[in-house]
Amino acid sequence: MDIGIQAGRDVMDQWVAVTVKGGTGQLISHVTTTLDGFPIGDDDLNPPESSYQRTWQKVGSGGANQTHQVEVTAHDQKGNEESASKTWQD
Prior knowledge:
Layout: E1 2-9, E2 14-21, E3 28-35, E4 38-49, E5 51-59, E6 67-76, E7 81-89
Antiparallel strand pairs: 1-2, 2-5, 3-4, 3-6, 6-7
């Protein structure tokens, strides 16, 4: 699976965009996303799909010199799991 994460700061909060693409013959069945340790997404794909995309606006908090981390875990139709994370500072 190929997991893509984009994220950034708005004036008072954060935005997060996640994409997951399955490999050859691989279908995505479940994706979880956390921001700073708090769940923001827990999506079952039924039926499983070859790709997944979701964007969150106005999540978390923003402020000068704060560090943030998004973690994404994706499962395929066979139960295999892959994770990725992105860390940034306001």
